User: Fold this.
Amino acid sequence: MSSRSSGRANLNAEQTLEHSVYRLIQVVTAGALLAMLLIVTGAQYQMVRDRFEVDAVALALHIDESIRPSLTTGELPNISDRFDRLQLPDNIARACLYDAKGSLLFERNGAGVGACERNVHLSAEARPAVATELDDASKVLATLHVFTTTRAIGRTVADAVMPVALLALILFLVTSVLSRRLAATAVSPVNALTAAAQALARGQLGVRMPEGGPSEVRALAQTYNEVIDDLLDTRRAAQSDVTERRRAPEALADTEALLRNIIDLVPYLIFAVRKDGRLLFANRAVAQAYGAQPSALLDPQFTDEYTGQRPDGLLFTQGLPPVDDEIWFTTPRGVRRLQITRVPFDGPSGEPLDADLVIALDVTEERRLQVQLQFSQRLEVVGTLAGGIAHDFNNLLTPIMGYSTVLMDRDLPEDAAAKIKSIYGAALKARDLVQQILTFSRNRDEPTQKLLIDPAEVLEDAMNLMRATIPSSIEIDFDIDADVPAINAHAGQIHQVVVNLCTNAAQAIAGAHGHIGVRLGADTDHVILTVTDDGTGMPDEVLGRVFEPFFTTKEIGHGSGLGLSVVHGIVTDHGGEIIATSKEGVGSTFTVRLPRSRMHSVAAVQAPAAPAIAHERVMLVDDEASVVRASKDLLENLGYTVQAFTQAETALQRFREDPQAIDVIVTDNLMPGTTGLEFAVAARKLRKDIPIVLMSGFVDDAAERSTSITVSIMKPVSGRELSATIQQAIRKDRAA
Assistant:
């Protein structure tokens, strides 16, 4: 049945029920009014009848009074005359007079009324209203029957009942109108219940009964609505359960996809592998490690390609116990160091799958950084050791250079003078070599102040160092163009650029016979340094990353990956650029372009000439007796008055006794007990304007920054260099 026909049926049913109730109320009302009317009619009829009987009795008494004398005397004509003149009321139908024998004597009939019966007995059967015997004292004279008329009774009753009937009709009409509304009100809860029940039958639980009306109906509505609420809750719970059941596969799929994405994004190799190498699952990092597509990992053909291989500690682990260790593993990016954890892998229900869960982390960079840290720590140790060696070596060179200059000033035979000059030249070269070692090996940040320098001199110094360190199987050629302009740069950093590029070229040749070419030239705007080697060369992917920090193709422990990145940083800091070109099997070329200075050349810095005869009083402090003797002889040879000490504490005590007796202090830095810097600070407290020269084979950062030091000079020095430095300190202190 369609919804429209069902709706019509429901409407017809509601109308039929309401109509039936309406009819029932009408029938009950009509019956009640009819009963009332009948009761009123019956009562009125009885009242009329009683009144008529009273009238009949009165008529009988009247007749009795009027004819009794005539009956006694037997004057029948007189009786007949009286009967003829007798006026019957409207409610008296007839009056019949019978003799003693029961025969009709006289009668008086109303209009339209039948005649009297001829026999008194027949008349008695007609049930007269009044039957009375007329007698004297001894006998019955006659019998009088008076009959009332039914029509008159009816008219009288009708006249009396008509207002009541009219009132009953009015009441019926009013009741009919009210009964329509009463029927609708009475049927409304039933209709609501019917509609709700029909909606429930159709599965529509949203229809509720109004909780109004009589208490019984209200209780029924409340009970019905509670049942509906329970059904709604049950249906919602069932629908929610069904919805959850329907969404469960989708939620499971979403969760699996989320977990898959998370596993693919973590930087770990995560996979489950059977003992035969077949993968149960694997993330993207595993695919990258094996150089395969992720979809190909679960293909049995992937593992079939590795059939017969030995266990590699990663996929192929047959016969290997669970581990938590590190392994070397070859990937498309080269050999990598992996930290792996491998444990037995069970199924969802705990059943053994004869498989392993492997989690591996690429720790190559971490291990490389550890090696670099160790290498940096070794460099720091080497720098400290080099400083100590330089200090001691410079102490040894100081008397050699000092006495060489003394002898060179004397008038010696030509052959002896030449030999003394050779000794002095060797000492100078040794001093330069020590300085280069310090510049190369000191593990500290160089001052960033840029000065006008001659790049050719820096290159020559660096090449002298490289010839001593690069294997003899590698030939070094360097060429410097004439009139190379000066540059504003830090000499130590440019020195490091040359050394790093030459070292990188030597490592590219890899110990074989080869050639390194170094050329220094210039164009209109730049000074150009070119370093070329005929080593192994680099592929394009390596060449593109050659200046990245910590990037190296060397094995761990054979390179920090910092050399070329440091070069790139220095060149960039100096406003220049570096370009690398390479070809595998041919070699590499690095071209450095640095901005040239506006000045054409570097003016030679000449030490101020020492006075022919000096007169200053000098306090000389050094823990090396040979240095003290040589320096004292040199200074006294130039006219200085020298007080020499090998212990800073003794010298400080002497200075405390008379600070004005000394014009300048010359002290070593690295000494047992009190250092030269501590001695200078203590002397400044005794006399603020005392010039102090720090003369040492190794000057650290603290000494260079100290305000207690007037000027510093590196050992070894000649007598004239030391004298010039003393005069510089005196002038500087006086100017301050």
